[in-house]
Each structure stands twice: as structure tokens, then as C-alpha cells.
Design goal:
The chain is of the alpha+beta class. 50% of the residues lie in helices and 12% in strands.
Length: 290
């Protein structure tokens, strides 16, 4: 199955399938683009040319395992390009210094058998599952239903309100002994227009009702509210991780930045499977540790 990689606004796809040895080969320039955070094709090509010469001089085996295969180039033509297989991409990543490369390798080798992998698969499946039609929209119970579905069998507290106090980045979320009453208040918050829906989302984020998995569950919860009330949803790919995280942090005292970020990313494409899947990809990307 072809793997889709999302880093900020860059999508990496396996560009060619080599049937002789039955493996996926990835464009080296795509990987370089992610590792250098550079979208300019010419600059990435020149950087790889420099790095390739340097690695060859050092007798690094990354160069020796590089294979040239034809794939669709930016000019729309099939051209020969340097490609690496799975092991080669990991080896290439190790030649780049810094935490970004380490994070890339962790992400590239991500296992679908991890909690994140399994819960993400279940989140994908929610789009085509009739269970979504039975969810309460805009209530704490509905959010618990989403959390229980995604994390059921993975966390023993799936769908259950936390009984411990939690904090993140110096911000303390709602005290556990006040959580039930706070959620009742959130249930009664209006959602007749976009601004009210965002305020409800902000309030739920401040509550943070679960020990883990709050963000991933609540973004789905927000989209269900938007779909029901406005016939719209968020195209999360239009909001970078940095902008989203900063907006969420600021929202504890001023939600205007988050309002603006979400509003510009609204789409009427609510029935698109691709839009939903892309949204889940970005939602999980937001939760990755830097």
C-alpha cells in the first residue's frame, strides 16, 4: 500500500514501483525537501548534488544504494531521478544533523502497531462507519463516544473522564473534581453560528476531559458540529502545525487568532473522503513531539 507522508505542507508519495525486486522507491529530492524545509525544486536538486558528492567522497553507502528510475518531474515529463528504498531513506536521514532529521526518521519508521497507529486507523474508519450517525453532536457525551471509539482497547480509560489533574506547557487544565460540572456548562453553550462553535471548542480544550487523546478527539468533535450546523468542516491541511499550536495556546486568554485560522480553512467539501483522511493525518501530525 502506498504510504502518504505529511510534513507541514509537503506531501511525499512513492514515485515509482520497481517490480523487479518488489519494493517501493522514494524520490530523494522529496526527502531532501522535507529535511531542508525547502519547496524550491532547483534548490533541492542543487543541494542533493552537493550532498551526493560529499557522501561519495566519504565513501558513504547511501550513494551506492541510490537507484535511478523514471518518475513524473515538475515539468510534467517522465525523467530519470535518484531514488532510494526504505532502508536507504533511513540512511539518508541519518546524514542530516539536528532534531528535525531524528524526528523524520521516527515518523518514517512509524509502526501501525503502535497506539497512535491503531487509533489513527480507527479514526480513518469512522468516516465510513454507521456509528458516526449515532454520535451526539456538540455534547460531552458525544466527545466521550468519539474518544471511546478511537482509543477503545488501546487505553483502559477510553471514553472515560479523567480523575487526575493535568497540565501542559505550564497551563493547568480544568481541575478533575470540577470537570463534570464544567462539561455540563459546555453542553449548554450555544452553537448557532461559527463564532459560538469556536468558543465551544476552546472551552472543551480548556476542559481537556481525558488523560490522553484530547486534541485528536476534539478536532473530530468540532468538525461534526460544523457539518451539522453550517454544512462545512475544517480543511486542517491549510493550518500549519506552528500556527495551530500557537493559536491554541493563545486561545486560553484570546481566541481571536484561532477564530481567524479556522475560518480561513473552512470548506464545504464535507462529504469528501480525501478531505476527511487528510484532516486525520494533520490532526495526528499536530500531536507529534518536536
Amino acid at each position: 500500500m502506498i504510504r502518504t507522508f505529511i510534513k507541514t505542507n509537503i506531501n511525499l508519495y512513492a514515485k515509482s514501483f520497481h517490480t523487479f525486486n518488489n519494493k517501493w522507491w522514494f524520490s530523494v529530492l522529496d526527502i531532501v525537501a522535507v529535511l531542508t524545509n525547502q519547496s524550491d525544486y532547483s534548490k533541492n536538486r542543487n543541494y542533493w548534488k552537493y550532498l551526493k558528492a560529499k557522501l561519495k567522497k566519504e565513501n558513504n553507502q547511501v550513494v551506492s544504494v541510490t537507484t535511478q528510475l523514471k518518475f513524473l518531474a515538475p515539468d510534467g515529463k517522465l525523467r530519470l531521478a535518484d531514488m532510494l528504498d526504505y532502508e536507504g531513506i533511513i540512511a539518508l536521514g541519518k546524514t542530516f544533523p539536528g532534531t528535525k532529521a531524528n524526528k523524520f526518521i521516527d515518523w518514517f519508521t512509524y509502526s501501525p502497531e503502535s497506539i497512535d497507529g491503531k487509533s489513527k486507523t480507527k479514526a480513518y474508519a469512522l468516516f465510513e462507519n454507521s456509528f458516526v450517525d449515532s454520535l451526539e453532536v456538540g455534547t460531552a457525551k458525544g466527545l466521550q463516544q468519539i474518544h471511546a471509539y478511537i482509543f477503545g482497547g488501546l487505553y483502559d480509560f477510553a471514553g472515560q473522564l479523567r480523575t487526575k489533574n493535568i497540565a501542559k506547557g505550564g497551563y493547568r487544565f480544568e481541575y478533575a473534581n470540577h470537570l463534570s460540572s464544567t462539561l455540563l456548562k459546555i453542553d449548554t453553550m450555544p452553537e448557532t453560528n461559527f463564532d459560538e462553535m469556536v468558543e465551544k471548542y476552546v472551552a472543551m480544550n480548556k476542559a481537556h476531559p481525558f488523560m490522553e487523546g484530547n486534541g485528536r478527539s476534539t478536532r473530530i468533535w468540532l468538525d461534526l458540529i460544523l457539518k451539522k450546523q453550517l454544512k462545512k468542516c475544517v480543511d486542517w491541511s491549510k493550518i500549519s502545525k506552528t500556527n495551530y499550536m500557537n493559536a491554541m495556546i493563545i486561545s486560553s486568554v484570546d481566541s481571536s487568532v484561532l477564530h481567524a485560522q479556522l475560518k480561513k480553512a473552512l470548506t464545504i467539501d464535507i462529504n469528501s473522503r480525501e478531505m476527511y483522511m487528510k484532516g486525520i493525518d494533520y490532526s495526528y501530525y499536530y500531536e507529534e513531539n518536536d
